[in-house]
Amino acid sequence: MDTRLSSAQQPGPRGEGPSSPDGWSEAEGTVQKDDTSGPAGDFNSIEPSLHSLQKFVPTNYASYTQEYYLFAGKKIVVQESIESYGAVVWPGATALCQYLEEHTEELNLQEAKILEIGAGPGLVSIVASILGAQVTATDLPDVLGNLQHNLLKNTLTRTAHLPEVKELVWGEGLEQNFPKSTFYYDYVLASDVVYHHYCLDKLLTTMVHLCQPGTVLLWANKFRFSTDYEFLDKFKQVFDTTFLAEFPASSVKIFKGILKWD
Length: 262
Ligand SMILES: C[S@@+](CC[C@H](N)C(=O)[O-])C[C@H]1O[C@@H](n2cnc3c(N)ncnc32)[C@H](O)[C@@H]1O
Prior knowledge:
Elements lengths: L29 E3 L6 H6 L18 E9 L2 E7 L10 H12 L1 H4 L5 E5 L5 H8 L3 E6 L4 H12 L8 E4 L6 H4 L9 E5 L8 H11 L5 E7 L3 H13 E9 L4 E8 L3
The protein binds S-adenosylmethionine.
């Protein structure tokens, strides 16, 4: 199922767009740099107490689009930019959102503690928050501004728990920043974090670090390259792995991993 709304379904120009939880409305299309409807401008309309949550400098892409999605009965608007891998919603994210909304009760997402790695523009974290989870969305420093912008816009008055945003660079400072004694997650979520890049070993190290007894890792990925299957082989060596779902139209597969304990 394609859950990105088609342009025919998308709202029209400014004023006809969706009402957000906090009453804003968005124009469809590209927002140019310096336009006050960009990330910095939008924060100005958020009530003062929430300014403290704007810990990250707004991401400075030259242009943005507003993309609309429908999950968990809510219209979700995500500010995206083709200028960064981390500012576009990938097919693994929409597949994982669909899986989460279809299995909310079985996964017991209400109040579940969730960390997402490589959250990008944040669609999965937004949907998990709307479904009742306590979410920490993580990524590289340069995408956190746009990530936080999208999370706030879509969760502000819709969720019991406002999601958090934290920097997490794979393989770096894991025990310092996410000590196992303090940080426990019911779920670690990852969508389209495996593709042709040079941090695959660090990614696996990160997945292992974040999982403790009882943690379930849900990994959705579009399988494109032989390196994706090589990563899957390594993943299976350290995680008891269950194949959960396949989305043939997008070549996305979803796996559940539970860390092996010797
Ligand atoms: C292909 S995008 C997927 C984004 C999002 N999960 C989705 O499916 O729409 C990969 C994400 O991993 C992040 N990433 C890449 N290398 C990383 C690293 N070394 N440490 C942390 N995050 C990284 C990118 O910034 C980006 O947000």
